[in-house]
């Protein structure tokens, strides 16, 4: 029964976020899919099953693994414009896996993980700027979600969250954090929309998303720093606040640029 509640909760959160992302267009869509809509439920349920030390370790390694998601977005954004889904997403996923394997072998500190994210996302913003620059202003709707797409997406996320939590005791905090950081929401969004709106539009979406996903890493850093001294509830609330403030700041910067 508990596993079913987890699955339904995680799937519902992702479906709601993805519907908003597809209806509101690329700028809002990039901000929404950058929020911790997949990893968030993982950590909510993780704090119910593990102690603060486990959650802190998972969050720190997840923060380091967030750099692998930056690499994922860079590769996809660079390849998507003139290539099909498999040719763009396949190398991006392989890049994430290769980076995550390397990251999982390192004993991270918050400073090391922060510097890694700064380097990767700083480079990512520069590399993907040509794709992202053309839609900083408010733009048209990206696509309308279809019921089957939403069901598939919800099922994938529900299975992912359930699997990560079920294996967490065996994997330990470091590997759990790395695996939980896999960009499942981004992957499912790209799979569903690439053929519907075209590679060029998806490259632009990925280019904008690079800026947002750095903020996701900061939410994991917040959990790591807060969960032991202040408790799980305060850590999760602080992480959510950081995510919302960061996204609001990005939106304000884009509106100012558009103006």
In brief:
With 259 residues, the protein is mainly α.
Topology:
Blueprint: H1 2-24, H2 26-34, H3 39-49, H4 52-80, H5 85-104, H6 110-133, H7 147-180, H8 184-197, H9 199-230, H10 232-258
Helix pairs in contact: 1-2, 1-3, 1-7, 2-9, 3-7, 4-5, 4-6, 4-7, 4-9, 6-9, 7-8, 8-9, 9-10
Entry keywords:
259 residues; mainly alpha; 10 helices
Alpha plus pi helix count: 10
Report the average pLDDT across residues.
79
Strand/helix succession: HHHHHHHHHH
Helix residue percentage: over 70%
For the sheet with most strands, the description reads: none
The radius of gyration computed from the alpha-carbon positions, rounded to a whole number of angstroms, is: 17 Å
Helix-and-strand structural type: mainly alpha
Poorly predicted runs are: 1-6, 135-142
| Silhouette | globular
Q: Report the portion of residues in β strands.
A: under 5%
Oligomer: single chain
How would you portray this structure in words?
The structure is a single chain. The chain is mainly α and 259 residues long. It contains ten helices and no strands. It has helices at residues 2-24, 26-34, 39-49, 52-80, 85-104, 110-133, 147-180, 184-197, 199-230, 232-258. α1 runs antiparallel to α2 (26-34), α2 (26-34) packs parallel to α9 and α4 (52-80) runs antiparallel to α9 (199-230). The protein starts with a helix and ends with a helix.
